[in-house]
């Protein structure tokens, strides 16, 4: 276990101070000028925070000691280390991070979120959370069973990226952790803006994928404002069945989601994918495969088939290997490029919220 309780306790004790993490370059310049420093000091802070990943203002050594003291009187960097972790036999690591008690995000104190690191050869993908709990209440998801406890701030979203030991090794980020990204869209857009800005990491938007069940209005806003890849949680092409698995289907059906997506270009820089957990005996028939082909006909996209990770209290099981292969081969043969995603971190329940659920049930701020 990777335990940093003393460091986390200090961060929570300092929660009366405002966080620099999560501020844009313009906002960091405003901080500098408000404290009587030159505006260019904001650019220096951005470099220290977002490029060099410092954890304290004292590490910003090209700022004068006087200016560092001015900053420290009201601000802190605001990076909070993981308080726990679980490592899979396949190298996947699930980290548990605290949520800042004083953020104006509606999150009560004593809450935690998970982020999952998935190393794969030269790639290192981080699966990031955007909410504490989730309103969507999908049948197969442990996070939804926590209920919803609030949106993460931009700082708490970015903290997952900057606080883990492997931060400098990351090659890709997927917003597929706890919560529905479109339900906290403003913070997600600001976080991706910071990650892709030339004064920050200057990441290509092609390295970031944002997932969604499909929320009316919000999905369109994301498609209009963000160049990042998009992944839609499909899981069934049939309205009634998808509604049983995913109550969000009532508000915006998968057919409406696909109709919206047809108005955007996914043939060039931005990629569209559909996530499909294959449940044995439920959504794995050839009738389902044919319905998917009909639903997605003519749409430039791919499907990722996902093996189901069993979670407690849910009467669903994963499909067997032969069924997965047959499903993939049918879709590919009928013009829908399909891959089977490698199962990662199953021994640590990497795909669900068990670690944060257990910690939140046993601790408060």
- Average pLDDT confidence is 89
Strand content: 15-25%
Task: Give start-end ranges of low-pLDDT stretches.
Answer: 1-13, 102-106
Can you identify the CATH class of the largest domain?
A: Alpha Beta
Mind summarizing the main beta sheet? 10 strands, mixed
Order of helices and strands: HEHHHEEEEEEEHEHEHEHHEHEHEH
Name of the CATH homologous superfamily of the largest domain: Aldolase class I
Task: Considering the chains and any ligands shown, give keywords for the structure.
365 residues, alpha/beta, DNA polymerase, domain 1, TIM Barrel, 2 domains, ten-stranded mixed sheet, two-stranded parallel sheet, 12 helices, 14 strands, 18% strand, elongated, disordered N terminus
What is the gist of this entry?
The chain contains twelve helices and 14 strands. By secondary structure, it is α/β, with parallel strands linked by helices.
Structure description:
- Helix 10 links the parallel strand 12 and strand 13 (302-307).
- By secondary structure, this protein is an alpha/beta fold.
- 32% of the residues lie in helices and 18% in strands.
- The two termini are 22 Å apart.
- The strands form 3 sheets. A 10-stranded mixed sheet has the order 3-4-5-6-9-10-11-12-13-14, sandwiched between helices. The protein has a two-stranded parallel ribbon with strand order 1-2. The protein has a two-stranded antiparallel sheet with strand order 7-8.
- It folds into 2 domains: 22-76, DNA polymerase, domain 1 (Orthogonal Bundle); 84-362, Alpha-Beta Barrel (TIM Barrel), CATH 3.20.20.
- The chain has helices at residues 5-13, 25-34, 40-51, 65-74, 154-162, 185-196, 218-225, 239-245, 254-261, 286-296, 321-333, 354-362, and strands at 18-19, 75-76, 84-87, 93-98, 112-120, 123-127, 131-133, 148-151, 172-175, 208-212, 229-233, 272-278, 302-307, 337-340.
């Amino acid at each position: 276990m990777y335990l940093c309780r003393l460091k986390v306790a200090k961060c929570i004790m300092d929660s009366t101070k405002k966080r620099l993490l999560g501020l844009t370059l313009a906002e960091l310049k405003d901080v500098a000028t408000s404290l009587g420093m030159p505006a260019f000091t904001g650019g220096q802070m951005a470099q220290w925070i977002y490029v060099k990943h410092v954890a304290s203002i004292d590490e910003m050594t090209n700022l004068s000691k006087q200016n560092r003291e001015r900053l420290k009187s009201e601000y802190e960097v605001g990076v909070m280390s993981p308080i726990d972790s679980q490592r899979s036999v396949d190298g996947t690591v699930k980290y548990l991070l605290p949520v800042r008690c004083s953020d104006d995000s509606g999150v009560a104190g004593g809450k935690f979120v998970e982020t999952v690191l998935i190393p794969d050869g030269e790639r290192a993908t981080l699966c990031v959370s955007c909410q504490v709990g989730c309103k969507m209440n999908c049948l197969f998801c442990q996070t939804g069973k926590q209920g919803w406890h609030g949106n993460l701030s931009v700082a708490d979203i970015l903290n997952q990226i900057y606080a883990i030991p492997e931060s400098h090794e990351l090659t890709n980020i997927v917003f597929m952790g706890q919560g529905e990204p479109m339900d906290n869209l403003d913070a997600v857009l600001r976080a991706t803006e910071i990650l892709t800005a030339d004064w920050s990491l200057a990441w290509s938007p092609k390295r970031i994928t944002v997932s969604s069940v499909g929320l009316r209005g919000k999905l369109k806003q994301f498609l209009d404002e963000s160049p990042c890849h998009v992944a839609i949680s499909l899981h069934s092409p049939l309205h009634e069945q998808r509604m049983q698995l995913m109550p969000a289907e009532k508000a915006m059906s998968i057919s409406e989601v696909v109709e919206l997506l047809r108005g955007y270009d996914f043939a060039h820089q931005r990629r569209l994918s559909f996530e499909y957990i294959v449940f044995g005996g439920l959504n794995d028939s050839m009738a389902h495969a044919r319905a998917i082909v009909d639903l997605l006909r003519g749409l430039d996209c791919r499907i990722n088939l996902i093996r189901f990770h069993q979670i407690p209290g849910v009467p669903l099981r994963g499909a067997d290997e032969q069924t997965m292969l047959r499903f993939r081969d049918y879709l590919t043969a009928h013009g829908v490029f399909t891959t089977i995603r490698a199962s990662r971190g199953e021994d640590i329940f990497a795909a669900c919220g068990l670690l944060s659920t257990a910690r939140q049930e046993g601790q408060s701020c």
